[in-house]
Write the structure tokens for this entry.
Amino acid sequence: MVEPLFARDYGCSEAEWLRSLPRAVGAHALSLRDGAATVAIGAGQLRLQWRPLPPRRIALLNLPRLWVEFTFDGVAAEERQVFLRHFDLCLQRGGG
């Protein structure tokens, strides 16, 4: 079950996040403002707020990080799950 309030640590820069966000929300209306966005989902909405975190350092490698807070308002649990399945798939990166 997807909780209506949660946060995630993404391994990307704010610029990468902003490039990926429109595809991740799909056909849902997206409204952007500095460090935040609103996504219309049915009769409700998802509010996103983000801020850069210090980079993750692995030896000489520096990986950008972004803290993102998700707040669903008026979106049923099943709708949240369906939305996030697509959202997560679009933001997924390659792995080993």
User: Anything to note?
Assistant: The longest strand covers residues 44-58. Residues 42 and 75 are 7 Å apart (CA to CA).
